[in-house]
Amino acid sequence: MRPRLILLVVLGAIAGGFAALLFMNSIGSFVSPAGQQNTTGKALIGGPFSLVNHEGKRVTDKDFHGKKMLIYFGFTHCPDICPGSLQVISAALDTLGSAADNVTPVFITVDPERDTPKLLADYVASFHPRLVGLTGNKEEVDTVVKKTFRVYAKKVKDSNQPNSYTMDHASLIYLMDENGKFVHYFGHPTSADKLVEQLRPYL
Ligand code: NI
Which domain covers residue 19, as residue numbers? Predict the structure, then answer.
């Protein structure tokens, strides 16, 4: 693997571990000292969002309720990590077949400046027929990526193209339940078989 890929994979693992810790803390906050469910508790990963899908339609987290969400964060100009990950995710869903019918695969861009709905439409279709692409204006995407899902993403200069930029970002997958609550994270997906094995217990 190239150093940059290794760095991003490590960042993904760290972010994922951090997410797991936050989630465990959030479970704690759900349970009051009396042991009763505290419905006002807020999970630290996930929550309400409003974005635009690859068909140009505004959607919120509620539009995804009723099915699990398998979310990958990336950007369409990504040279290798995102396409590789999305291929693995798509192949894993195909292998799972009907077991994955209750899962909506979602690609949330970390690069809203370039990732228009039109660009996302062609991109997601090239990986999986059910893959949903989400974008929005810079402010709302930044909020969703960095605050709602706490995913590392940063705009950096592209050393190969001085007039352009690339995005450093964590390569990880979140699984959310039918109510949009965080269930589990999976690190950088290395193979479809491995991801199938990791996903199956949660489906
Ligand atoms: Ni990428």
Answer: 1-27
